[in-house]
Specification:
Blueprint (H helix, E strand, L loop, with lengths): L1 H32 L1 E7 L3 H12 L4 E5 L25 H14 L33 H14 L4 E3 L9 E4 L2 E6 L5 E9 L5 H5 L4 E2 L5 H4 L12 H4 L19 E3 L2 E6 L27 E2 L5 E3 L12 H8 L8 E5 L3 E5 L20 H24 L5 H7 L3 E3 L20 E2 L7 H4 L8 E5 L3 E3 L3 E4 L5 E4 L2 E3 L5 E4 L13 E2 L8 H7 L2 H21 L8 H10 L11
Parallel strand pairs: 1-2, 1-6, 2-3, 6-22
Antiparallel strand pairs: 4-5, 5-6, 7-15, 8-9, 10-14, 11-14, 12-13, 16-21, 17-20, 18-19
Helix pairs in contact: 2-13, 3-4, 3-13, 9-10, 13-14
């Protein structure tokens, strides 16, 4: 009797074990094999806007974020919204800035200062009675996005990196599924690459480029090597705050002043700038948009990095000694006594020339590049706050500030999101160029508008003919008014893929991308990309075959702004 009961118990246990294994197996398959209407790779501002729009249009969607934080740069320190003209922003993008205002209308969200004490400024000043707010803390942006994720019940997965070797499966030319390095697989009818790097488009064998085209390629004037600073004189568009982002005259580039045999100081290109107007593989410099605070209870003082090398900052010190009077940062005020701190003058937060390999680098190599940028910037801030060769008034001011305790996961207050200003750019049937930015060519199939000037940060340091250190690559050229972005610039050539859309790494020349590449515009393009994807699903057609009139009708119904009629 005892043996019989034990046998039954053992048999039952085996059955339950087998059932459990089978159920887990089914759950794994369900997690990796369910097909979504839309698969969005990249939880950036563009990716989130795309996911929201898909849900609003009644489609199933999944949002895949390779890191542990959504929002990209919008939640990564870029709180000083670069727009050019706020009236060009509509749809979900404008809803985001309305959500920011609602967030700051809640008294509890003013922890470190009174609401009445905060004053914004510049192009993003919020006017009295305006329904939107254009400056914000990273945590405020994150709160708005997380509310959207919850409101629309958007499936979201973190820390899922695309297998960039074999991670895209195509059937009859269409992407059918994408595989992560974890082994997870996501199937969909339509796909959106919403990464800053363009990893999905590259893995899907879509045509793309990296770097600056020669001016001759698209008959532009602002695109290739530019050592003459003609951008600040020919167009009448002054550099930010009257600063040319270059060294003052007289900065010696050699380790031992006046001795070329001693070698160049760090981060100077030994091969020279290249031929004027020529293309190269250079991309504009990256940095961290620091969220600093001067509140003593929330401030983490700038620390000297363990690997600090004073020689890395010798050009900074010599620039001061040669007569630089400008403050080496733009410290834009954000709420709660915080900042969005950006690059300014000839030596600042941009780690010039140290990002060329980033777009194509492996995940592990990218982490090293990100860490190198962080350590460079940490060393810069310590130098500005402490080094005796830095002018005293600068040291005194910088020492008041530090990273914020309450914004990012790292104990040192630094974020993980690097400001990837430019990486891969798709090459499709329509390439946005300087002609679009200047209004000389008008896209006939607009899906949104850009309004910021043609803006490129420096791409290299070199020694000029006089034997002095100089930066090269900075362009700040006007656009006359907001201009339309072509639908064809966010879809690949049909022969390469009929079910992929690319709202960030758009088909544009280097200098046109420098105007388009703003977070509000990325949200606009993310929404428009999702709209096109949903309509194409309904019609069972390639995204390239979508009737523009139908797309335009839906975009306008959803309050996108497609043409310029003047200020609000």
């Amino acid at each position: 009797m005892i043996k019989t009961n034990l046998h039954r118990l053992f048999t039952t246990s085996l059955f339950l074990l087998a059932l459990t294994i089978a159920l887990h197996s089914c759950q794994d398959r369900a997690a990796t094999q369910d097909e979504y209407d839309l698969v969005v790779y990249g939880g950036t501002s563009a990716g989130i806007a795309a996911a929201v729009q898909a849900k609003r249009m009644g489609k199933s969607v999944i949002l895949i974020e390779p890191s542990s934080r959504i929002g990209g740069l919008t939640t990564g320190g870029l709180g000083q919204t670069d727009i050019g003209n706020k009236a060009a922003i509509g749809g979900i993008s404008r809803e985001f800035y309305e959500g920011i205002k609602e967030y700051y209308d809640i008294p509890a969200n003013w922890k470190w200062q009174q609401k009445e004490e905060y004053k914004d400024g510049g192009q993003t000043r919020t006017a009295a009675g305006e329904s939107s707010m254009w400056t914000f803390e990273p945590s405020a942006a994150l709160a708005v996005y997380e509310n959207w994720i919850d409101t629309y019940n958007i499936p979201l997965v973190f820390k899922q990196q695309l297998d960039r070797e074999n991670g895209v499966t195509k059937m009859d030319g269409k992407i059918s599924e994408i595989k992560m390095r974890s082994g997870e697989v996501y199937r969909g009818k339509m796909f959106i690459d919403a990464t800053y790097e363009g990893d999905l488009l590259a893995t899907a064998d879509i045509s793309y480029t990296i770097g600056r085209e020669a001016n001759a390629k698209y008959k532009e004037t602002q695109n290739g090597v530019n050592t003459s600073l003609k951008d600040t004189t020919m167009t009448g568009y002054p550099a930010h705050n009257g600063i040319n982002h270059n060294f003052v005259d007289g900065v010696d580039p050699y380790v031992v002043k006046g001795d070329p045999g001693s070698g160049l100081l760090p981060f100077i290109n030994p091969n020279g700038p290249g031929e004027e107007g020529a293309g190269d593989h250079h991309i504009q410099a990256y940095c961290f948009r620091m969220c600093l605070t001067d509140h003593p209870d929330n401030r983490i003082p700038f620390a000297k990095p363990d690997n600090y090398n004073e020689l890395d900052y010798e050009l900074l010190l010599r620039n001061f000694e040669a007569g630089e009077e400008g403050f080496p940062w733009i410290n834009s005020q954000m709420p709660n006594r915080k900042t969005d701190t950006n690059n300014r003058t000839g030596f600042s937060t941009d780690f010039i020339g140290q990002n060329y390999s980033y777009p194509e680098a492996s995940y592990e190599e990218r982490e090293k590049i990100i860490e190198a940028h962080r350590q460079y910037q940490q060393g810069l801030m310590w130098t500005l706050a402490n080094h005796p060769r830095v002018p005293e008034h600068i040291r005194t001011e910088v020492a008041k500030w530090g990273t914020s305790k309450d914004e990012f996961e790292r104990e040192d207050g630094w974020q993980q999101q690097l400001y990837v200003r430019e990486a891969r750019r798709m090459v499709s049937d329509y390439v946005m160029t300087q002609y679009n930015c200047e209004g000389l060519e008008i896209a006939e199939d607009p899906i949104g508008m850009a309004a910021y000037g043609m803006d490129s940060h420096n791409t290299q340091r070199y020694v000029n003919a006089e034997g002095l250190a100089k930066n090269e690559g900075n362009v700040e050229a006007r656009v006359k008014e907001p201009y339309p972005i072509s639908y064809r610039s966010i879809v690949p050539k049909k022969s390469e893929c009929p079910n992929l859309l690319v709202p960030i790494c758009v088909s544009a020349s280097h200098i046109a991308f420098g105007s388009i590449r703003m977070e509000p515009v990325f949200m606009v393009l993310g929404q428009s990309a999702a709209t096109a994807a949903c309509l194409s699903i309904d019609e069972e057609i390639a995204v390239q075959d979508l009737d523009y009139a139908a797309l335009q009708k839906q975009l306008l119904a959803d309050k996108q702004r497609l043409s310029w009629t003047g200020n609000e």
